[in-house]
Amino acid sequence: MAIEAWFMDESGEDQRLPHKRDPPEHVSLEHLADLGVVYWHLNPENYENDEELKKIRDSRGYSYMDLLDLCPEKVENYEQKLKNFYTEHIHGDEEIRYCLEGSGYFDVRDKDDRWIRIWIKAGDLIVLPAGIYHRFTLDTSNYVKLMRLFVGEPVWTAFNRPQEDHPARKEYVKNFTEKVGVLLEAH
Predict the structure, then answer these.
(1) pLDDT value at position 185?
(2) How far, in Å, CA of 82 to CA of 80, rounded?
(3) pTM of whole model > 0.70?
(4) Can you say whether residue 6 is alpha, beta or left, with left for phi > 0 and alpha for psi between -120 and 50 degrees?
(5) Low-confidence ranges of the chain (pLDDT < 50)
(6) How far apart are the first and last CA of the chain?
(7) Could you tell me if 151 and 63 are in contact, meaning their C-beta atoms sit under 8 angstroms apart?
């Protein structure tokens, strides 16, 4: 089962809605890979003993792991936290998330600065490259259990857009946008 992704509409409705265009414009795994987004589908019921997850962690150097339950009952100031996650930003390192239960959306900017919505569900492991503009929200289920993976000690620093001079953003632009001659402008 592959991950689902599509170009978002421009609606200002609830961020937890799918925001598909009419007609829908689906995005392939190849298109996501061109943006540096990496994806695996694993067995979330066996994450503690999953040999494939262990191989991924070993090969990519993901030495730190923790688990996070996001839902109104378990997160203080839930609505404010969701708004914070939904603010467009980058990180200086990869963002690695493995969905164990529930579902949510990662939105990433493409080379033409359009939003692509990626729907993660149980079993989806996604890696967003350092420097890609993105944001996160839950869907209408209002629940997700995520495994967060890091290389070394965890760093959760978000740098809100614009960040064109941030070293991770410059590296991302060099690796994933200049190859096709399109630069993303800050707004």
Answers:
(1) 42
(2) 5
(3) yes
(4) beta
(5) 180-187
(6) 36
(7) yes
